[in-house]
Amino acid sequence: MLASVLSEFDIDYSMVPSLEIIKSSGMVRGKTDSVDAKRIALYLAVNNYKLKPTNLPCDEIMKIKTLLTLRQQYVKIRTQFKNSVKSLRISSKIIPLRNEIKQQEKEIDRYDILIKKIEVQIKDIIKGNESLDKNYMKITDILGIGLITASQFLVSTNNFTAFDNPRKFNCYCGLAPFEYSSGTSVKGRTKTSHYRNKELKAALFKAANTAIAHDQEINLYFARKISEGKHKMSVINAVACKLVYRVFAVVKRDEPYYRLAV
Fold first, then answer.
1. What is the pLDDT of residues 76-94, one digit of tens each?
2. For 143, which of 13, 80, 194, 215 could close a Cys bridge (C-beta 3.0–4.6 Å)?
3. For residues 185 and 21, what is the distance between their CA atoms, to the nearest angstrom?
């Protein structure tokens, strides 16, 4: 709401993750509104040279983002009902719970309909915007990328304008591995950072599993890495990275995705 008001009055502003300001403050003690204001002002004074004005995404992207959040809430509720049905079916072997199970199943069906309606809304919004629809059609040609994952790409990248390259996007998702070492005494394993967009990483892992199952090239890559002794989750993470690189390639090069014959 604040960003919308600032934009309305043509006031420049920069949106910065709160964690970045907290980490830049070093060792601190205490917390009050006035102290926080001073820390934010100090961050601005020190980093003013690299801050860029922030522009709100278009209305379509903001609406898609809201619908994705609402869909996620509905999916969680539906999962709770599904788990409840499983529990009731076990209990029904001892006591009669037929009516209770039917009621829970009706709720599952209701949320199935609500989720489907949201997905139709998202698709209609994308089709109504030429730029969004163009990128959507290109990235959904990639095996593993469906409506929800593609929509999350469009939202999180502001239709591929917020990130210069796939490496930065992989860092944002928590897919990019980083070395952990110092001199000869500290040598930890290379791993991804826990600073990440958890929902987006989960979606990309699902997309990676789909690609492994249906993309012959990815399937062969997965099988080869597993045979080399690589950990399964590490390989899935690498596949997710490959999908991100493919998505950015077809968008930035402005050309369709061609599936290679293996």
1. 999 999 999 999 999 988 9
2. 215
3. 31
Are the CB atoms for 78 and 114 separated by under 8 Å? no
Strand pairing partners for 188? 180
Closest by alpha carbon to 145, among 205, 192, 196, 198? 205
As given in the structure block, the two tokens for residue 204 are: 């990309």
> In the numeric block, which tokens belong to residue 244?
């991100």
Q: Where are the chain's structural domains?
A: 17-51, 59-128, 133-262
**Dihedral sign (CA 77, 127, 132, 63):** negative
Show the beta-strand stretches assigned E in 9-143.
Answer: none
- Widest CA span of the chain, in angstroms? 69
Residues 189-221 pLDDT 10s: 676 777 778 888 999 999 999 999 999 999 999
pTM of the model: 0.83
CB 51 within 8 A of CB 14: yes
Q: Which two tokens stand for residue 163?
A: 């990130």
